[in-house]
Write a structure and sequence with these properties.
The complex is a heterodimer. Chain A is of the alpha/beta class. In chain A, about 50% of the residues lie in helices and about 10% in strands. In chain A, helix 5 links the parallel strand 2 and strand 3. In chain A, about 30% of the residues are buried. In chain B, helix 1 packs across helix 2. Chain B is an all-alpha fold. Chain B has one domain. Classes of the chains: A alpha/beta, B mainly alpha.
Chain lengths: ~300, ~55
């Protein structure tokens, strides 16, 4: 009887301990917000919050800030620590602060073994089904051009945006440190694409229930960044299989850059219609010329 | 015959709406899209039980 009571108490403590730790963090964050509301400097408020957390409360940022959402404001009580600013800045309004904390889309070249990169908020991957051949090269070059044109390099944001606030779109590459990679040479990027990274990402998305039967390429994202391989986590897929023109690839990458980071749920329902439109446009543009030329053969001669 | 004239008129209107939505990049793509929609509307309309009064 006594033993079962002790077991019950331990069980209850075990169940509630995480909530207790989070409640402590909640208090620090609220104090931090209150400090900001009372007109305190962001750096001094952040230092006070840091001391509060160091005194025994755990931050729990990953468990709270990114779960089922790619933005911190999914739990408005938990605010991240800002980077130490060299000069005091004017206090932003609450809405601006929340918007500034959204994940920033960036791009990076990494070896497949280095995926997922540690500490990033969320990440995505450009997934090919196969290395370029003479028939697929043009499309993959378009995908590469759209990738390099629409996303800023991760190095450009170093020191400006912490890695935990970045949504990194990765191009798997077997030589990420090569000078051609630094110059965004698309011929080099598709020739040295590391196929294992792409194929394993497609297989993982397949296991999560996405149906990827096209020729690709795909944009596949995971949120939070440690969600890969975990059942019931958000997996986002943009299928670029039907696209034939540079403009369609550009639109898809701009969509990825803007909408996915803002709201993955919106993207899930919204991109399907846009994808149909782009695929239909590429279809009529591709076959329109051929069919009208064929009609001209039988039509009046000039 | 009259049925297909009506269907072609409907197809033309739908084709122009499709043109506004799809926004093809080439003139031949735009022409093909409108013709395609007219053809599809006529093909589906042939199965509809509409009265076909000959002029």
């Amino acid at each position: 009887m006594m033993r079962s009571c002790v077991t019950c108490v331990l069980l209850i403590l075990g169940l509630y301990f995480p909530q207790m730790a989070r409640a402590g963090d909640l208090g620090c964050s609220e104090a931090y917000r209150q400090c900001l509301d009372e007109g305190g400097e962001p750096t001094s408020c952040a230092a006070a919050r840091k001391e509060c957390l160091n005194s025994g409360n755990s931050p729990h940022r990953d468990g709270w800030g990114y779960h089922h959402s790619w933005r911190y404001e999914s739990n408005p009580a938990v605010l991240p620590l800002p980077e130490a600013a060299p000069t005091p800045m004017p206090r932003p309004p609450q809405a601006t602060l929340a918007r500034a904390l959204a994940l920033r889309p960036v791009r990076a070249y990494l070896r497949a073994a280095e995926v997922p990169p540690p500490t990033v908020g969320a990440y995505g991957l450009v997934a090919f089904r196969a290395k370029p051949t003479s028939s697929t090269r043009a499309r993959l070059l378009m995908a590469c051009a759209a990738f390099t044109a629409s996303l800023p390099r991760q190095q450009d944001l170093a020191g400006v945006v912490p890695t935990s606030e970045q949504m990194v779109t990765i191009w798997p590459l077997d030589e990420p440190d090569a000078p051609q990679a630094k110059n965004d040479d698309c011929d080099f990027l598709i020739d040295h694409y590391e196929l294992y990274g792409g194929v394993s990402a497609i297989e993982d998305a397949d296991r999560r229930g996405a149906t990827l039967n096209g020729e690709g390429p795909y944009l596949i994202g995971w949120s939070p960044s440690n969600a890969r391989g975990v059942p019931d986590q958000v997996v986002l897929v943009v299928d670029l299989s039907g696209f034939e023109s540079q403009d369609s690839f550009n639109s898809a990458f701009l969509f990825w850059q803007k909408k996915i980071v803002e709201d993955p749920q919106l993207w899930r329902s919204g991109f399907m219609v846009e994808r149909i439109r782009l695929a239909l446009r590429d279809f009529v543009d591709r076959y329109g010329n051929d069919i009208l030329s064929a009609v001209k053969i039988f039509g009046p001669k000039d | 015959m009259q049925k297909h004239i009506v269907l072609s008129a409907i197809g033309l209107v739908l084709g122009l709406l499709a043109l506004a939505w799809v926004r093809p990049e080439t003139p031949s793509g735009a022409t093909f899209l409108v013709l395609l929609v007219i053809a599809v509307v006529n093909a589906f309309g042939a199965f509809l039980p509409l009265p076909d009064r000959r002029p």
